[in-house]
Amino acid sequence: MNTAVATIVIVGSLLLMLASLVVAVRDRPMGMVLLVGFAVLEVAILVQAGFVIAAVSGGEGPPEKATLFGYIGGQVLIPPAGVFLALAERSRWGTAILVVAGFAIAVMNARLLQIWQGVA
Question: Under a CB-based contact definition with an 8 Å cutoff, are residues 95 and 34 in contact?
Fold first, then answer.
């Protein structure tokens, strides 16, 4: 697993979480900046998933593959689901969904690093 990409995903998701929090506190719906930000985050997550799949097919990684792929699959689904729900709910609560989505991606990615390194 590429730790540089993992760091980019964690930092990007936390920045998007903070930006979403500011927008939610200001009682605004999601704008184009957050939409593009979560699209870029999704691309970074897909790149990370590609690195993990390539490394696992090369024989690297933890012995427990089901948990690893569960976290990767969950990470891939969260940004599109969060954006969809934020677009459906055009109030501050729609943007609050993006706050939770950004935080969830950061936590899941940190946990994914722990699983990869065999810490937990």
Answer: yes
In angstroms, the Cα distances linking 83 to 26, 30, 78, 79, 116 are 18, 9, 9, 6, 28
Q: Are 119 and 41 in contact (CB under 8 A)?
A: no
Q: What's the pTM?
A: 0.90
Q: What is the pLDDT of residues 69-108, one digit of tens each?
A: 999 999 999 999 999 999 998 888 989 999 999 999 999 9
Provide the strand spans (E) within 3-119: none
Position 107, amino acid: V
Q: Is 108 exposed, middle or buried (0-12, 13-18, 19+ CB in 10 A)?
A: buried
Q: Give 37's contacts (C-beta < 8 A, 6+ positions apart).
A: 12, 15, 16, 19
